[in-house]
Specification:
- It is a single chain.
- The chain is α+β, with helices and mostly antiparallel strands.
- It has one domain: Alpha-Beta Plaits (2-Layer Sandwich).
- It is 34% helix and 32% strand.
- Helix 1 crosses helix 4.
- The protein is globular.
Length: 100
């Protein structure tokens, strides 16, 4: 099992485009033995300390294997709307790990 944590920074004013992308992308995760475990949109008062830019959203996703994650990234349906991701996301801090 692998775990992917993403700190997502969106382009100001592109929230609706980002939400459209998420509504299309998230259901595809399950096709590849994956699961969205947590999706958080933190408010300013949720941060106790922060030495980095505060993200718009934080996602924790699991996949059974690395290959399942690679297959998800190559999904043909997902590729059809990657332009929404590119239009709305400024950057992503991506962390990959395993459960200890």
């Amino acid at each position: 099992m692998i775990f992917i944590t993403q700190f997502i920074y969106i382009i100001e004013g592109q929230e609706a485009v980002f939400n459209e992308f998420e509504s299309l992308a998230i259901p595809i995760i399950a096709k590849y033995n994956g699961q969205l475990l947590i999706r958080i949109r933190p408010e300013e008062n949720n941060f106790i300390e922060c030495a980095i830019e505060k993200p718009y959203e934080i996602h924790l996703v699991s996949f059974a294997t690395d290959q399942d994650f690679e297959n998800f990234k190559q999904d043909e349906e997902r590729k059809l709307f990657l332009h929404l991701k590119e239009k709305s996301i400024q950057s992503i801090l991506f962390l990959k790990g395993i459960k200890l």
